């Protein structure tokens, strides 16, 4: 569900496309609210209303869309069905005529089996009970048995490949070999002189640090907003660097823009994202020592989640480069509607520099360690209806490359957290009026996607940042409360009269009075557990069921809005490749 909307957009005719996208959006909304680890009365009412809307859109989808299409088994599914039938037939004994099943007269070929969208399942039937279950037993992460069940699969993954009499040793050997092969793969350089030369040229000029370079960061204080290495190995002479790329639009006025940004930080201007224009005399009061800035591989952002926990995002210009900051636009537009509270940018480079500030406004005569991000800005598509009321994801695109505001600098202190931006595949690719530039990764081949959708359902915290009302979002609450006005009619009506709820709790109270006074409760009471089979990505076990079944299936992304399980730190997080000897405590004999 996290990525489904951009993928399905435009696949069906227009009259069906809107219904399908509304269904996917409502499914993601319901799933995001149902899996919250901290609920309020407001979020429970929203979940209740989402359940009502989801039931209506599911019925509309079946009656309007499904009836128009003749859905059948895929050829691979039909072939598997035939093999199962043949295997079952072969096991039958001979008939009275002495004929074996294989020698009997063959029947005529049948057409593929038809498939229908079925609403009569317990999974859909139980959706309406979630709100009452959460009120009675707590949030769904407390009642799910999935954690233990999935953890039990971990040692079984290698079991089919090993000697059954010595499976413990065999599993250990397989795990060790997998790590060694991974290390070998990382060490292998790309073949081909032309490609290697192209990559080397890009590495020498790119503002990012190559994959194979390690930049270890120690554990950070979770109370700090961010952490960037102070390493000085990867230095850049900005005068020479700008001269080498004088035809690159991304480098236009690079040094004046950088000095404007540094002055904004030095003078304590609050809105340092909105670059303040300083005169050339004021810019000359800023001196970057040795004309050097120092490039880094990763920036780690610590933030407080909606449920008052501390989390960390690892930002890397090569892999996880998209960020969100608070907008400096007015709170409302000319038509009176709330302005979008966020600005979005893609990190091109992570830098620090030693800066000396002189002149009457200088606060110290000593060089200062200053950190900054070089970014490429996105602009919000104002013509695209988006939000909770319209059931559309917010859509952004790169600012025109010929616009001087397309590139700029951001103080890491202003970064809220990483953001999930998904290409709008239906709208294709373009250049954004940007010539070949080092601002693009080499893999993009000098093109950009025309639009990107903002992943509002990337995880639980993202859902609340785009909904508003997150308990832990104190620093952004004033801005994100604008989203509370962008609600469905059903939500707005209930907010005006919160005492009116779709599902009354009177039945629950009666149950408590009549049959729940004993310690054990009613022995026939339904056990409230969450058995969602499509949630494996929550714990990093996506795809295990396919491996165990031995059937070929198409891989899919996790539907969970909280695929937040932290993977082990690797090279893309600034860490070096694991040392096998240090990891195991011994080396090969």
UniProtKB/TrEMBL annotation:
Annotated source species: Laccaria amethystina LaAM-08-1
Protein name listed in UniProt: Uncharacterized protein
Residue ranges of the region described as Disordered: 73-110, 470-589
Biased composition (Acidic residues): 523-538, 559-581
Feature: compositional bias, Basic and acidic residues: 475-506
């Amino acid at each position: 569900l996290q990525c489904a909307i951009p993928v399905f957009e435009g696949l069906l005719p227009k009259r069906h496309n809107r219904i399908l996208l509304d269904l996917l959006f409502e499914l993601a909304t319901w799933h995001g609210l149902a899996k919250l680890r901290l609920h309020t009365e407001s979020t429970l009412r929203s979940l209740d209303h989402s359940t009502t809307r989801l039931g209506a859109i599911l019925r509309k989808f079946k009656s309007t869309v499904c009836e128009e299409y003749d859905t059948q088994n895929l050829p691979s599914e039909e072939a598997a069905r035939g093999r199962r039938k043949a295997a079952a037939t072969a096991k039958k004994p001979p008939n009275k005529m002495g004929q074996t099943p294989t020698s009997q007269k063959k029947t005529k070929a049948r057409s593929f089996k038809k498939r229908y969208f079925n609403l009569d399942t317990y999974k859909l039937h139980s959706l309406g009970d979630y709100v009452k279950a959460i009120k009675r037993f707590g949030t769904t992460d407390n009642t799910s048995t999935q954690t233990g069940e999935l953890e039990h699969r971990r040692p079984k993954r290698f079991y089919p490949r090993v000697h059954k009499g010595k499976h413990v040793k065999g599993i250990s050997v397989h795990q060790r070999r997998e790590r060694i092969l991974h290390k070998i793969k990382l060490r292998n350089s790309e073949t081909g002189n032309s490609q290697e030369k192209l990559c080397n040229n890009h590495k020498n000029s790119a503002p990012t640090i190559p994959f194979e370079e390690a930049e270890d960061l120690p554990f950070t204080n979770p109370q700090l907003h961010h952490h960037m290495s102070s390493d000085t190995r990867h230095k850049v002479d900005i005068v020479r660097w700008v001269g080498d790329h004088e035809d690159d639009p991304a480098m236009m006025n690079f040094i004046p823009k950088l000095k404007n940004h540094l002055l904004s930080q030095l003078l304590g201007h609050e809105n340092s994202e909105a670059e303040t224009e300083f005169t050339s005399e004021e810019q000359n009061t800023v001196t970057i020592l040795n004309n050097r800035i120092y490039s880094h591989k990763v920036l780690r952002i610590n933030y407080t989640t909606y449920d008052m926990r501390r989390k960390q995002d690892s930002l890397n210009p090569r892999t996880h480069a998209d960020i969100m900051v608070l907008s400096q636009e007015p709170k409302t537009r000319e038509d009176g509607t709330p302005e979008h509270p966020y600005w979005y940018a893609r990190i091109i480079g992570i830098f620090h520099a030693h800066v000396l500030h002189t002149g009457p406004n200088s606060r110290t005569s000593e060089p200062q360690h200053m950190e900054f991000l070089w970014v490429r800005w996105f602009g919000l598509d104002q013509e695209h209806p988006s939000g909770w009321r319209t059931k559309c994801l917010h859509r952004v695109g790169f600012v025109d490359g010929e616009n001087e505001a397309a590139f700029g600098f951001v103080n890491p202190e202003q970064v809220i957290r990483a953001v999930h931006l998904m290409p709008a595949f239906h709208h294709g690719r373009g250049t954004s009026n940007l010539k070949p530039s080092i601002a693009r990764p080499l893999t993009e081949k000098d093109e950009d996607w025309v639009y990107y959708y903002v992943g509002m359902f990337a995880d639980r915290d993202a859902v609340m940042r785009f909904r508003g009302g997150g308990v832990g979002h104190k620093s952004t609450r004033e801005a994100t409360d604008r989203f509370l006005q962008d609600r469905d009619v059903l939500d707005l009506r209930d907010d005006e009269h919160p005492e009116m709820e779709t599902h009354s709790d009177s039945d629950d109270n009666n149950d408590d009075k009549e049959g729940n006074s004993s310690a054990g409760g009613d022995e026939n009471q339904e056990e409230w557990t969450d058995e969602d089979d499509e949630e494996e990505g929550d714990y990093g076990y996506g795809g295990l069921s396919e491996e165990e079944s031995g059937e070929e299936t198409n891989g899919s992304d996790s539907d969970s809005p909280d695929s937040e399980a932290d993977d082990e730190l690797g090279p893309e997080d600034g860490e070096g490749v694991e040392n096998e000897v240090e990891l195991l405590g011994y080396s090969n004999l």
